[in-house]
Design a protein that fits this description.
This protein has 431 residues and is an alpha+beta fold. It is globular and about 65 Å long. Helix content is 49%, strand content 13%. The protein contains 20 helices and 10 strands. Bound molecules: fe (ii) ion. The site of fe (ii) ion has 5 residues, from loops.
Length: 431
């Protein structure tokens, strides 16, 4: 089932709540966000006279069906709804704009409850556990979610315990490189420091595995990579992503995040603290001594070199307020250009080898016109993928498996341009 309408609704709901909390309901930016929320609600309710979203046990349900991707992606918002006492949201078809504005206010904690009897109602039909029809969450997705939750907890002031972080990333250690790269490469529209951190951890882990690191080293590398932007996590996310850019003072604050992250890590106890602190401190340093903070003659830790490349790759392929996302191919070109100056040449070489010509998780257009998501490649053999749109541009009900050689590829496509939700494809890959 397509979870996109629910995701668009939740994205718009979170955005509208933020704008209302920051600027008040009558501000133009809040009104724009509410307009987008009304549109998303219209799409979500277009098929049924009434739609019920329920939060149970940290997961989100549409009717009785668990939305595993959406629960994962919006786990922050889902936790916020729960903490505000919201167990379910009932939307009638094309809900009234005033009711949607009330809902966004409640979701943002600006007001406490909704009036009864409107077109949007809260906690009207919370489902019992027995009604639920859960979809099992795969081990990797569970780990991905647990990692996001850990970071979110740290952002909310939880104490850092390295032992716990290492226990969580354990779920990633031992997963196949193709699956890890795919999980890290798939993109969604709700990008935050949390997602970025988990992706960097997956990428660094896969790179470390490819470079022959042992299991203990991999655990420390993955944990350090997960925490590399802890200094940013501790900064206010809203301030980092606000429209209109940052002031000089805010920039200065952002540039301090390596030191602040390292300090916070050093204050923790447990295995791998020093390595994680080195990674946090050095991930924006460059091999030529530029970058921040200055290395002052110090050698960059080998793990910091790995994380710097993983960090850059994920940042380049993510959308930013001032520019769209770039394809994995472009990211690899940028890394190659910075090899030896910005980045460690050996690390870049092994990363490019690992990603290959067609990194798992990227979208390609074949000569036939079909659109394919790469799932892997056999040693020296053809790449494999899933056909997500046929040559006529039609979306296939069930993605078909395909093998292809480089000569069949016309070019790389961004998932957004393809109108495909790559998260949905993970299920097809796993099955
Ligand atoms: Fe950073």
């Amino acid at each position: 089932m397509n979870e996109l309408p629910v995701r668009s609704f939740l994205f718009a709901l979170g955005r509208a709540g933020e704008r209302i909390a920051q600027h008040g309901r009558d501000d133009q930016s809040a009104r724009d966000a509410l307009g987008a929320l009304a549109e998303a609600s219209g799409v979500l309710t277009s098929r049924d006279p009434e739609v019920v979203l329920t939060v149970s046990d940290g997961a989100l349900y549409l009717g009785t069906r668990m939305l595993s991707h959406t629960s994962l992606e919006f786990n922050g918002l889902v936790a916020d709804l729960r903490s505000r006492g919201i167990d379910s949201i009932t939307l009638t078809r094309d809900p009234h704009p005033d009711d949607l504005a009330d809902l966004a206010s409640v979701a943002a904690g600006v007001s406490a409850d909704l009036p009864v009897g409107g077109t949007v109602r809260l906690n009207e039909r919370p489902l019992a556990g027995a009604d639920m029809d859960p979809v099992p969450v795969s081990g990797m997705r569970r780990t991905y979610r647990a990692s996001l939750e850990t970071l979110r907890g740290l952002g909310d002031g939880n104490r850092l315990e390295m032992g716990k972080v290492i226990g969580i990333v354990e779920g990633f250690v031992g997963s196949s490189p193709a699956a890890s790269l795919m999980m890290a490469t798939i993109r969604n529209h709700d990008e935050t420091t949390y997602y970025h951190s988990v992706n960097v951890s997956l990428l660094a882990l896969t790179m470390g595995g490819g470079m022959g690191l042992g299991p203990d080293e991999l655990r420390h590398l993955a944990a350090g990579a997960l925490l590399h932007d802890l200094g940013r996590v501790l900064l206010d996310e809203a301030a980092l992503t606000k429209a209109g850019g940052l002031t000089n003072e805010e920039w200065a604050q952002v540039r301090l995040h390596p030191q602040e992250g390292a300090q916070a890590i050093l204050a923790a106890t447990g295995p791998g603290v020093e390595v994680a602190a080195a990674i946090a401190l050095e991930h924006h340093a460059r091999m030529d001594g530029e970058g921040y903070p200055a290395l002052r003659g110090r050698e960059m830790h080998p793990f910091s070199r790995i994380v710097a490349v993983a960090d850059a790759y994920d940042a380049i392929t993510s959308p930013r307020p001032h520019r769209p996302a770039r394809t994995p191919l472009e990211a690899m070109r940028i890394l190659r250009e910075g090899s030896g100056t910005a980045y460690d040449a050996g690390v870049v070489t092994s990363f490019l080898q690992l990603m290959g010509e067609f990194p798992p998780g990227s979208m390609l257009r074949l000569g036939t016109g079909a659109l394919v998501m790469v799932t892997g490649r056999e040693e020296g053999g053809p790449a494999s993928g899933l056909v997500v749109r046929d040559p006529d541009g039609r979306k296939l009900p069930e993605p078909e498996r395909v093998r292809f050689g480089g000569e069949q590829v016309l070019g790389h496509v961004l998932p957004d341009e393809a109108g495909i939700d790559p998260m949905e494809l993970i299920d097809a890959v796993e099955s």
